[in-house]
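Quick illustration, no need to memorize.
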Amino acid sequence: MSQHTILTPDAHRDLRVHSGHGETYGDGVMCCVTVPDEFRRVQNEYPILFRLNPDRDSFAALAMFGFENGENLFLDDGCWDARYRPLAMTIQPFLIGRPSPESRERHVHVDMASPRIGADGDLAVFDADGKPTSYLERVSEQLGQLDRGYQGSDAFFAALRRHDLIEPLAVEIPLVDGSVNRLVGFHAINEDRLRELDSAALAELHGEGHLMPVFMALASLSNLDALIRRKNRRISDG
């Protein structure tokens, strides 16, 4: 269970974080949240899919690491086998918090229940004088990037809905052991509908800054085949 608290030098002077990779540190997940501002970097490595939260009638973008809960096919003997890790993974165990949902104030919070926290962690958060280390400064900048991306996500998904560019996606995954996995409950860009948009609609998307993320999300789908190959190698290797 998470245990979020505001990060302060007085309370967390000796806090240390593990920089390694692996299920031990909470990396055993099939996906993480990403944001349109990050799509260009994410699409080089991972499929980008969308998931609808029916209770809030809102979409979230996800960078996919596997096909089953708890499966991260990019983990390999303590290494993350990709040129880029999404911000939502890189900033852990930190997050942005607000005093209240309506507040515009932002504070750096830390999840004290995170497995990345430990006395033998290799990264210090504050120095001996209680000042942020270069590590914390870097994380703070990444938190800011992610928070700004969150703020722009609603407009992005509103534009996709306005132009009917989101469609449900069902993927069948043929595996070397003869079984077939199915990836369901996700959405993706409707390429045919995108091709049908007239110049005015494309200009609107471009003017609002949404066209590039749309193309990046669409291009990322080519990574599904690579992810399937990772899955089959994992099965073959036992």
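Helices lie at 9-12, 39-42, 87-90, 134-162, 191-196, 199-207, 211-220, 223-236.
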